[in-house]
Amino acid sequence: MNDRTWDRLSGLVVGAALGVLAGILLAPNAGAETRGSIKKKTQDSLDQIQKNVHDIRESLTQKGQSLFKKSVTEIPLDGNDNPNEDQGA
């Protein structure tokens, strides 16, 4: 990573952290309510990530099985790419 990219990335992370901190400090709710809200949103996000990972895993498994079945039925076992071509040419 070059210095310019690193500087931008660092700025983005610091800005996001400051935004979260300001949001917590300036929140209209009590501390316990704010923490509860953050905990709930974090858990909801984790649940969604787990669901997405599960869906992607299922999709990849199905595609892998499909490709395997296709390779078994379409690739000749004798190494001849063209089954209509004579072997003794």
Describe the model.
The protein contains 2 helices and no strands. The model has no long low-confidence stretch (mean pLDDT 82). It has a domain at 36-73. The chain has 89 residues and is mainly alpha-helical. It has helices spanning 3-25, 31-74.
The overall pLDDT, averaged over residues, is 82
- Structural class call reads mainly alpha
Gyration radius from CA atoms, angstroms? 27 Å
Number of strands: 0
Which regions have little confidence, pLDDT < 50, spanning 5+ residues? none
Q: State the helical fraction.
A: over 70%
Overall shape: elongated
Distance between the amino and carboxyl termini: 56 Å
Which sequence of SSEs, written as H and E, runs from N to C? HH
Main beta sheet, described?
A: none
The fraction of residues in strands falls at under 5%
DSSP helix count?
A: 2
Organism: Sulfobacillus benefaciens
InterPro entries: Desiccation-related_membrane (IPR052928), YtxH (IPR024623)
Protein name: YtxH domain-containing protein
Pfam families: YtxH
Blueprint (SSEs and pairs):
Blueprint: H1 3-25, H2 31-74
Compact description:
Helix content is 75%, strand content 0%.
Relevant terms:
89 residues
